């Protein structure tokens, strides 16, 4: 927590959408939220550590094409942080900013209230990416899980998944009048999303039909794209397409229904 | 931007706003000159906040024309935010944002921010700089919002219930601050429920009642205009008959209490009472003649039933 005084620099341009001061503030505020920090950044890696310490998770399985269970859980934990944050932390914050008149207060200044929403989303996306990186590194260092063979495809799928999580969280915020309702709606959507990402049964172990259905959901598609890239193929345009389509759809919904007050 | 030096800096004409078919601002018009402190008074629910939030561009009028420094607050919102400082009747900041961070952040929004340190000091916030917003007392939050309204060094500042929640000393300090701000050329649009505040600060006052402009005058003008501008009270040595009292010119009200008589009316009423007393050879013990206050004028101008 830094309390070092920052120089008061005038805003650079008119009606700014991206404002460095707002971004810096949101980073500070995020660091003051131990709950969000734990669930988004630390919990996924912690879960991977616990699962990986179970001996049976480290045995190669013919049914998984020679992979170990811990290998299949790396993409799941890579996605877990953004799902938790996107559905539990972000919508409550954004809805709270509206509910408590913070956006309204900001709209009387030359900086648009959208800058605040945007800054929070950037912070959240950064945290989700750190969380994903932590899970990847932990898998590599502690359990010898190979880093994704198709790195570029993996990164692309990861970024698209973060975008989808942002869009989903924004839509929840747009549709809920109070942060308490945002929390409740977020939780209700959270479990199916975590299921689709493979938290209970990794997508590789799902029955064929279920895997195909799950592939149509944002995080099911993300999991399959990550799996493909981890194994060294290009993630597959169908999965990336499903992810992108969801992102566009959810973003359009959020933009359509979001209220500033 | 073309800062119009001629003409009013705030212009509201024929403003209408309704919610769900209920008209809450009903044809309000007024102008505020540059460098003026202009007060808006009225009962709860009269439409004061709605009116000033139309000036701020936070609400869109149903009809009428609003201009701030020649700009339309809705269509040219971005440019209006550069000349306008705002303290809302109700708002919050992020719970874990400290006072210093809030001041620095809002200063960074303005094209030519004021130095926040002296401002924080004058508002008694200098000892609370490290405190998070959620941990501030109600009055401290209010002071912070006053600071945020002034921090952008605005040409016009709109203060909705400036000193609500402030202790008497803080209230007086804030009045002095507003007077100093005005002395530096800033125009102030002030919504208040405190008559003392309005009487001390405002050059002119608009009284709004049920969405309509009930009066617009200087504080003295409003008092003079009210029916009982002068109040006369005394304990007569012998009772005076009702008919003689009722016949007094310009009389607005008569009350008897514990043998004491209180009359309100005009200067003419006072003269007539003195003549009457002399003629009846009645002595007026503990005679007091006072001007009515803005309070009296306010009650007189606004109807008793509030929506
Ligand atoms: N957003 C809104 N939706 C519906 N009705 C509203 C809205 N804002 C204000 N009103 C109504 O308009 C009327 C005027 O409200 P306003 O807030 O302007 O009053 P005010 O004069 O500022 O009162 P107070 O002294 O209590 O602050 C009230 O009856 C209120 O219920
Ligand atoms: Mg009000």
TrEMBL record, chain A:
Q: Name one GO biological process term.
A: response to antibiotic
GO terms of molecular function:
ABC-type transporter activity
Give an example GO cellular component term for this record. ATP-binding cassette (ABC) transporter complex
Does the entry feature the keyword Heme, yes or no?
no
Say if the entry is tagged with keyword Cell cycle: no
Q: Where in the cell is it found?
A: Cell membrane; Membrane
Membrane-topology annotation of the record: Multi-pass membrane protein
The record, for InterPro entries, names: ABC-2_transporter (IPR052902), ABC2_TM (IPR013525), ABC2_TM_bact-type (IPR047817), ABC_2_transport (IPR000412)
**ABC transmembrane type-2 domain boundaries:** 35-261
Positions of transmembrane segments:
36-54, 74-94, 115-139, 151-174, 181-201, 237-258
Concerning PROSITE patterns, the annotation shows: ABC_TM2 (PS51012)
Signal peptide span per the entry?
Answer: none
Record key words, sorted: Antibiotic resistance, Cell membrane, Membrane, Transmembrane, Transmembrane helix, Transport
PANTHER family for this protein: DOXORUBICIN RESISTANCE ABC TRANSPORTER PERMEASE PROTEIN DRRC-RELATED (PTHR43027), TRANSPORT PERMEASE PROTEIN (PTHR43027:SF2)
Q: Which family does it belong to?
A: Belongs to the ABC-2 integral membrane protein family.
Q: What is this protein called?
A: Transport permease protein
Q: Which organism is it from?
A: Streptomyces griseoaurantiacus M045
| Lineage of the organism | Bacteria, Bacillati, Actinomycetota, Actinomycetes, Kitasatosporales
């Amino acid at each position: 927590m830094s309390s070092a005084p920052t120089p008061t620099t005038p805003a650079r341009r008119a009606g700014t959408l991206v404002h460095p001061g707002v971004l810096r503030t949101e980073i500070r505020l995020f660091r003051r939220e131990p709950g969000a920090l734990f669930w988004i950044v630390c919990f996924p890696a912690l879960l991977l550590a616990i699962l990986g310490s179970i001996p049976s998770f480290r045995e190669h399985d013919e049914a998984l094409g020679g992979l170990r269970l811990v290998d299949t859980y790396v993409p799941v934990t890579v996605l877990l942080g953004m799902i938790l944050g996107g559905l539990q932390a972000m919508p409550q914050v954004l809805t709270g900013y509206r509910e408590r008149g913070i956006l309204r207060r900001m709209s009387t200044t030359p900086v648009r209230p959208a800058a605040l929403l945007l800054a929070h989303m950037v912070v959240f996306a950064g945290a989700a990416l750190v969380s994903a990186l932590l899970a990847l590194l932990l898998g590599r260092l502690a359990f010898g899980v190979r880093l994704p063979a198709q790195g570029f495809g993996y990164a692309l799928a990861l970024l698209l998944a973060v975008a989808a999580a942002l869009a989903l969280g924004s839509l929840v915020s747009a549709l809920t009048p109070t942060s308490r309702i945002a929390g409740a709606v977020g939780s209700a959507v959270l479990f199916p999303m975590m299921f689709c990402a493979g938290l209970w049964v990794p997508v590789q172990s799902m029955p064929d039909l279920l895997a195909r259905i799950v592939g149509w959901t944002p995080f099911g598609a993300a999991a399959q794209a990550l799996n493909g890239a981890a194994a060294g193929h290009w993630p597959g345009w169908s999965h990336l397409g499903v992810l992108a389509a969801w992102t566009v759809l959810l973003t359009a919904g959020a933009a359509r229904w979001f209220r500033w007050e | 931007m073309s800062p119009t030096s001629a003409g009013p800096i705030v212009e509201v004409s024929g403003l209408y706003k309704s919610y769900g078919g209920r008209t809450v601002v009903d044809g309000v018009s007024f102008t505020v000159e540059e460098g003026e402190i202009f007060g808006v008074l009225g009962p709860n629910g009269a439409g004061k906040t709605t009116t000033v939030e139309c000036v701020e561009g936070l609400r869109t009028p149903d009809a009428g024309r609003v201009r701030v420094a020649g700009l339309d607050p809705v269509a040219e919102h971005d440019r209006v935010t550069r000349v306008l400082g705002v303290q809302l009747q109700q708002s919050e900041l992020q719970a874990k944002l400290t006072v210093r961070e809030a001041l620095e952040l809002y200063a960074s929004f303005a094209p030519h921010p004021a130095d926040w340190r002296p401002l924080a000091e004058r508002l008694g916030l200098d000892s609370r700089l490290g405190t998070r917003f959620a941990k501030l007392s109600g009055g401290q939050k209010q002071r912070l919002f006053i600071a945020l309204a002034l921090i952008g060094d605005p040409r016009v500042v709109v203060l909705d219930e400036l000193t609500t929640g402030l202790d008497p000393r803080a209230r007086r300090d804030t009045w002095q601050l507003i007077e100093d701000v005005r002395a530096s050329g800033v125009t102030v649009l002030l919504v208040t429920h405190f008559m003392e505040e309005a009487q001390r600060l405002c050059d002119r006052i608009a009284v709004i009642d049920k969405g309509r402009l009930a009066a617009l005058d200087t504080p003295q003008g409003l008092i003079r205009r009210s029916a009982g501008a002068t109040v006369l009270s005394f304990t007569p040595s012998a009772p005076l008959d009702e008919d003689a009292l009722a016949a007094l010119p310009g009389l607005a009200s008569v009350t008897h209490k514990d043998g004491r008589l209180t009359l309100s009316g005009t200067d003419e009423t006072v003269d007539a009472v003195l003549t009457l007393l002399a003629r009846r050879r009645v002595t007026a013990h503990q005679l007091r003649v006072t001007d009515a206050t803005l309070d009296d004028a306010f009650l007189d101008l606004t109807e008793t039933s509030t929506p």
